[in-house]
Amino acid sequence: MEVLEERIKKDGIVKPGNVLKVDSFLNHQMDPFLFKEMGKEWKARFHGTNISKILTIEASGIGIACVAALCFGLPVVFAKKSIDVPLDDSVYTTKVDSFTKNKCFDVSVSKKYLKEGDKVLIIDDFLANGCAVYGLKDLIEQAGAELMGVGIVIEKGFQEGGKKIREDGIRLESLAIIDSMDPETGEIKFRH
Ligand code: 5GP
Questions:
Q1: Residues 22/188, Cβ–Cβ less than 8 Å
Q2: What is this structure's pTM?
């Protein structure tokens, strides 16, 4: 998605440790006009797919998924993160290693909001090693719901997540795929 790549080139800051900061439009200040274009793009790419619900993970996924859900005309649910979820049979729970925080979180979603028969599209801001996506997939499977696809804003194509997800036969639509980024020069190269 050209407008997104331009924005990443203009405002993205490459940090050591394979981290890209995009706080000016995605992860802190948010650009809802760009989010709307992203939502429309996913809606077009998933045209003909029978999706009934969007699922994301707090915190950064929420704003993006909410605007995307408006474009799809669908409800959106976010999985909650905490260090220690109390044992409670009203929720499905899984564990997710956080790439940026270097911690393992319990991630949960209420059984009320994810159910058998739901046809779910996962939306998230970044894809690195795929832990967040596979955690959400686990919650979907626990609920007996169906994973219809994954929409990602920025896939770091030099990390493992995208390859694994595609190899597992899961439909993955990343709006920008970064092939390489250099913390010394700040240069970002995209895959097309
Ligand atoms: P994964 O679970 O695929 O390893 O990492 C994806 C999650 O980690 C995303 O939900 C995102 O919040 C965070 N993340 C991974 N890489 C980056 C990055 O380069 N920049 C930012 N801002 N977040 C990232």
A1: no
A2: 0.96
**Nearest one of 146, 163, 144, 145 to 155, comparing CA atoms:** 163
User: Best mutation site among 14, 95, 98, 100 for ligand 1, i.e. most ligand atoms within 8 A of its Cβ?
Assistant: 100
pLDDT in tens, 144-178: 999 999 999 999 999 999 999 999 999 999 999 99
> Beta strand 13-15 with 119-127: parallel, antiparallel or unpaired?
unpaired
**Widest distance between CA atoms in the chain:** 50
CA 12–ligand 1 middle distance (angstroms): 14
Of 3, 6, 76, nearest in space to 35 by CA: 3
Classify residue 64 by its DSSP letter.
H
- What is the distance between the terminal CA atoms of the chain, rounded to a whole angstrom? 10
Name the nearest CA neighbour of 164 among 176, 175, 152.
152
User: Atom 10 in ligand 1: which residue has the minimum CA distance?
Assistant: 126
- Output the residue whose Cα is nearest ligand 1's atom 8: 99
